[in-house]
Amino acid sequence: MGYLSDDHRWMGAALALASRGRGRTAPNPSVGCVIVANGRVVGRGWTQDGGRPHAEAMALRQAGAAATGATAYVTLEPCAHLSARGPACTDLLIAAGVARIVAAMGDPDPRTNGSGFARARDAGIAVVEGVREAEARGMIAGFLMRQASGRPYVTLKLATSLDGCIAMADGQSRWITGAQARAHTHLERSRHEAILVGRGTLVADAPRLDVRLAGLAARSPRRVLLSRRPEPGWEHVAAPQAIAGLAGVDHLMVEGGAGAAAAFLGADLVDRLLLYRAPVLIGRGRAALGDIGLARLADAHGRWRLADARALGSDRLEVYERG
Fold first, then answer.
1. pTM for this one?
2. What values do phi and psi take at 225, rounded to 5?
3. Per residue of the chain (323 residues), what is the pLDDT tens digit?
4. Is 263 assigned to a binding site?
């Protein structure tokens, strides 16, 4: 194989490693690194909980002397700034003697932002940029949103009937969707630092909002309540815009109910939609959304782009991102 096909394949492995840290590394991005020598992986790493060690440091420690002359595949430009928490990854790669760095994208953090690549090139390392960049950007969407807008990346989850209801008229909502869709929701929870509901959901359902999947229980997110008044045992925001102040939260999942969903949509603070639809009709039930401030039907078009769709048992999942 040539460099292009090999680079694409090995970057896929680095992206898979990066996914392991999603929701656990804020305020650092979750990065993956694979070190390859003579067509064989000699080191691999991903950003650890809390942001350290970095992926490159973990992979280089595993590779040892085999890193000399090897290619390092990283999902983000190696950091180049000094930190009290550890050395710059660019310096570690240079010291290890890697011959080549293949990166999915540059780091927008102004402390690095191109200087990692420049320093590596000055040291005689060949640098390739932009391999599977779109996938890498999706992996660290929360970090990029914090850098650009100072707030978390927001995913809104809705589980509805075919006719757009989230509950019966009397409030019964367990369960509209089946076991596979609910398991997927728990997987999504594990990829977020925090999960938010409104007071109506708190009162009606007393939700646990934890992750109930084998091996992932420790990844249960922090619980946040959208309400005018705090609640013991919950973090609290009084308005959607206040999520900017949630320290250590780069990925926020909004899970209920109709009022909270409408508030975030009305504030234009939803970046991704998870729409689970069950093959049931409820009729006179509770609508999935309240008023989102839409004045003209024309304004609703062009807002969302279908990014993924799949069957989950008898249910269907559709994932939409900003258009």
1. 0.91
2. -110, 130
3. 444 579 999 999 999 999 999 999 999 999 999 999 999 999 999 999 988 899 999 999 999 999 999 999 999 999 998 776 778 999 999 999 999 999 999 999 988 899 999 999 999 999 999 999 999 999 999 999 999 999 999 999 999 999 988 888 887 777 889 999 999 999 999 999 999 999 988 887 888 889 998 888 888 999 999 999 999 999 999 999 999 999 999 999 999 788 999 999 999 999 999 999 999 999 888 888 888 888 889 888 989 999 999 999 999 999 999 98
4. yes
Neighbour-count burial of 305, counting CB atoms closer than 10 A to its CB (0-12 exposed, 13-18 middle, 19+ buried): exposed
Domains of the chain, with CATH numbers? 5-143 (3.40.140.10), 151-322 (3.40.430.10)
Half-sphere exposure for 140 (CA within 13 Å, toward CB): 32
Q: Is 56 a catalytic residue?
A: yes
Quote the CA–CA distance of 197 and 11 in Å, as a whole number.
Answer: 36
Tell whether residue 89 is among the known ligand binding residues. yes
Q: Is 260 annotated as a binding-site member?
A: yes
Alpha-carbon gap, residue 289 to 165, rounded angstroms: 9
Catalytic residue among 56, 77, 188, 193: 56
